[in-house]
Amino acid sequence: MLYLILAIVSSMLVSVCMRLSEGKAKNNISMLAMNYAMCTILSLALAGSIDLFPKADGLGFALGLGLVSGAMYLGSFMLLQWNIRVNGVVLPATFMKLGVIVPTLTSILAFGEVPRAAQIAGIVLAIIAIVLIQLEKGSARAKNALGLVILLIAGGSTDVLSKIYEQLGSSALSDQYLFYTFFVALALCALLAVVRRQKLTVSDIAFGLLVGVPNYFSARFLLLSLGAVPAVIAYPTYSVGTIVLITLVGRAVFREKLSRRQILAMGVILAALILLNL
Q1: 216 in Cβ contact with 43 (< 8 Å)
Q2: How many structural domains compose the chain?
């Protein structure tokens, strides 16, 4: 459970760093590339004398899944951007959060993790809470519903890959898997920045590197938590727990006011977290 808590805290810090970058970082793709650069550096530094291509069983699987994972990281981000342009901010954010349904169902259907009745109730409450808090800004109408569904599936599938590696990959190669993931994301993001002719400013570098630190640890701790906590508990807890911390930090640090809907959502989340961990 400690790893899961650390993953939630790290995920919250990613949002805080992104909030701090608003109005300061000039080029979003360039900043994202620097974020993945920091993740790549950390995956090397914290692994110590890591052999990037060891002669060990499971290397092909770690490399292949890392390539897919890195591509999906960037793909999900691009889908989110496109959906925001087409459908506004509220609905894409909601569907991205609801992507937690995908790894949860995958864990039940593919890996046989059967939740108890209380945990099922917790999952349902978690989904309700996400909808409540994400739709706070008012009514929104989708102009492209298919794009939102694809975003939900893509965002959730990215999380599924962590569970797949935890189940089928070699734990001895987990550092290599994370390195492959972030290096591929970095390479693709850098290529996209060049194609779009985005310049690299000092603020892009600074905030990108800042975001990269908690982003790396959120991925690392989530992967570690899946070895100790069933995914049907870990993913919903990770999602709604992050929302709670972001809301509390927003209130304490950025002086954001909580509406009645948000307060209600916090209560629903608390109930969901209790049920998930019974």
Answers
A1: yes
A2: 1
